Amino acid sequence: MMTATRISAVDLAPYLRRAPSGSFRLEMPDSQLDTVLDMAAGLTERRFFGEVILAANVILHLGTPDQKERMGALLGELAAREDPIIADFAQWALDTPPTDKALAEFYPHPMER
After folding, report:
1. What is the Cα–Cα distance from 58 to 67, expressed in whole angstroms?
2. Running DSSP on this structure, what letter comes out for residue 112?
3. Do 26 and 104 form a contact (C-beta atoms < 8 A)?
4. What is the largest CA-CA distance in the chain?
């Protein structure tokens, strides 16, 4: 039950919008960003960092300037960790903007606007 709660907390599908051209944009309130950051701060088990890092990747590249800055700081902290799996995944998120194709696979039914 806790796993579903954690995954739901970082779900960005309600905030992704798809233009008729197929490109994505993120319309996410800062309260959702705070939820992702709070979840990341409370994590102790490696298995839950994946969802946070994937969400952080989308926010870093599609969020508002403030959201991008805050998410970049989180990913920088995670990339500096001693755990090589978390560090490498966080570095990937910093270096790799999500493609529209990848977003369509992860979020197949975004709102169209």
Report:
1. 10
2. E
3. no
4. 43
Burial profile 73-99: b = 16 or more Cβ within 10 angstroms, e = fewer: ebbeebbeeeeeebeebbbebbeeebe
Q: How many residues does the chain have?
A: 113
Q: CA quadruple 88, 89, 93, 95: dihedral positive or negative?
A: positive
Rounded Cα gap, residues 22 and 77, in angstroms = 33
| Residue tagged 């969020």 (tokens) | 63
Between CA 48 and CA 63 the distance in angstroms is 22
Per-residue DSSP letters for 11-80?
--GGGEEE-TTS-EEE---HHHHHHHHHHHHH---GGGHHHHHHHHHHHHHHS-HHHHHHHHHHHHHHHT
Q: In what order do the strands lie in the sheet with 24-26?
A: 24-26, 16-18, 111-112
Which pTM does this prediction carry?
0.87
- Domain map of the chain by residue range? 2-6+30-107
Q: Write the pLDDT tens digit of every residue in 13-41.
A: 889 888 888 789 999 999 999 999 998 88
